[in-house]
Amino acid sequence: MAIEIAHTLITPYSLLKSRTGGIIGRLLAWGELELAGARIYAPDDAFVDAYLKVVGASSLDPAMKAPLEKYLDENLRPANRMGISNRTLALFFRGENAFAKLHNVLGPLELKLRGDNIRGTYGDMVVVDGKVQYFEPAVLGAADAATERAVLALLAERAESCGGVVEHAVKLPPEAETTLVMLKPDLFAKRSSRPGNIIDMFSRTGLYMVGARLVHMSLDQANEFYGPLRQIFVNRLKFLVERKLREGLKGAFQFEVTDADIAAMAEPLKDKNAEWEFNQIVSFMTGRDPYKEVSAPARKAPGRSTCLALLYRGVDAVNKIRERLGPTNPKEAAGGTVRSDYGSDLMRNGAHASDSAANAVRERKIIGLSGTEPSAEAAMIREFLAGR
Question: What's the mean pLDDT in 63-75?
Answer without folding.
Answer: 94
